[in-house]
Amino acid sequence: MGTPRLKDPAEVDAMAASGAVLAGVLDALADVVAVGVTTNDLDAFARERIRAGGGVPSFLGYRGFPGSICASPNDLVVHGIPGPRPLADGDVVSLDVGVTLDGWVTDAARTFVVGEAAEEDLHLVAVGESALADAVAACRPGNMVGDVGAAVQGRAAREGVGVFPSLIGHGVGRRLHEEPQVPNVGRPGQGIHLRPGLVIAVEPMLTLGRPAIRLSPDGWSVFTVDGARATHAEVTVAITEHGPRVLTPWGGSGRWP
User: Fold this and answer.
1) Domain boundaries 9-246, corresponding CATH code
2) pTM for the predicted model, two decimal places
3) So where are the chain's domains?
4) Residue 163 backbone dihedrals phi, psi, to 5 degrees
């Protein structure tokens, strides 16, 4: 495992500019997700909005990935390839977006409900957002990366949902994936120290079923093994001397998730 590269305050500000473009794209996607819209439609919309903001889709071409975003409906947990599938009433779909602006990468995801969702699905999505909030609250100097994972794991356990131990967050900066790894399970006080200047993508991925996954033959799409639905919530957050600074705030200034 390599040494995380810390960012100085000017670099964190530059990443915040990238994050502002990304957050605007996610907010705009919230108004586009609807019954009958395809994940290809969402991909094209996001790609246009990213470029209109002066950015580049970080995912497009990354290790051969063919989409500008990851679109993952229902039991597709993460890394779904956009395609012709139309969204149906009652679906849940996670949209994961990466933006590169002036060489700085940010990464964030939200799960949306389509039409009239079942109560258990609404609960799952809400728990994912609460787990993210708990994890970000742990992103302060003096804590360890294990405190972040423990926050996610604890929220999931209290709410009766599963957390995938093999699906993790990561450092981010000049590259999409940097050190350190940020697991969604952990023990307080274990792992690397969270130091000012560290920037990480925190991303709980939870399920209503068994916390086990299978990889699609396409080499990207990660599904639940039992067909249970999943949720994915993610922000890019900088550790500062004053606590966590979310660089991809959902819903405009001051709101995330």
Assistant:
1) 3.90.230.10
2) 0.96
3) 9-246
4) -120, 135
